[in-house]
Write a structure and sequence with these properties.
Layout (H helix, E strand, L loop, with lengths): L1 H17 L21 E3 L22 H12 L1 H8 L18 E5 L5 E6 L7 E4 L8 H17 L26 H9 L2 H7 L1 H19 L4 H7 L4
Parallel strand pairs: 2-3
Antiparallel strand pairs: 1-4, 3-4
Helix pairs in contact: 2-4, 3-4, 3-5, 5-7, 6-7
Length: 234
């Protein structure tokens, strides 16, 4: 699926180029519009590919214990893995209330304000949807981080918190938040013992350095907003 993701993106760009156009997969390219996301649907199956391990007909909403543990693992590590779902400064400009982009790392059912959502409840296709990722993510890294977090929950039999219902954008609700900036996500990535154990120090240090470089370059640039605010206009 990561291969297909990369090929489709490249194909779109090549087709657009051939027509004298350009395609962007920036997470937020226009202030007045909703951003571009990459929702990742996940499920585990038996080794022979015949049995969905997330489905348990007698279970609550058809969710197996394995699925609950897997989801609990993603919530437990939600902050640490955010960099791999939102790797650029622009990525965090998508996380705005009222735009269907998540700002809280909580789970729910048919609720598009939640970062993690259970789809296909009470059916064999019951699965987990991570709605945090933007269209700018690297699918290989994103899938690896999500799988690692979920499997950690399964191995440790983590307990799943109750589903959230209501408007997760409500500022009065004290809920687990998606990191608000690249700086925040970088700090969580750097300090993640979990990710260092599963991906290795070399990998994590490389992407911490990547985040530092991007932040350094951005911080010394002059933005359009600064020019509009700093110049007198007639």
């Amino acid at each position: 699926m990561a291969d297909r993701h990369a090929i489709i993106k490249n194909g779109c760009k090549e087709i657009a180029y051939g027509l004298g156009r350009a395609v962007t997969f920036m997470a937020k390219w226009d202030y007045g519009m909703a951003g571009s996301s990459c929702h990742v649907h996940q499920s585990l199956w038996s080794a022979d590919g015949k049995s969905p391990l997330f489905f348990d007909k007698p279970g609550e909403h058809g969710m197996s214990e394995t699925m609950k543990h897997y989801l609990a693992g993603q919530l437990e590590h939600a902050g640490e893995i955010t960099y791999f779902l939102a790797p650029y400064i622009n990525s965090y400009k998508r996380f705005m209330a009222g735009t269907f982009a998540p700002t809280r790392a909580i789970w729910s059912f048919d609720n598009r304000t939640a970062g993690y959502r259970v789809c296909g409840a009470d059916t064999k296709s019951v699965r987990l949807e991570c709605r945090v990722g933007g269209a700018d993510l690297n699918p290989y890294l994103a899938f690896a981080a999500l799988l690692a977090a979920g499997l950690d929950g399964v191995e440790k039999k983590m307990t799943l918190e109750p589903a959230f219902s209501g408007d997760a954008y409500d500022p009065a609700k004290k809920l687990r938040e998606v990191p608000k900036t690249l700086r925040d996500a970088r700090a969580l990535l750097h300090g993640s013992r979990f990710l260092r154990d599963v991906m290795g120090d070399d990998v994590i240090d490389h992407y911490v350095h990547t985040a530092d470089w991007e932040q350094f370059e951005f911080d010394r640039r002059i933005t359009d907003l600064e020019l509009r605010r700093g110049f007198e206009r007639y």
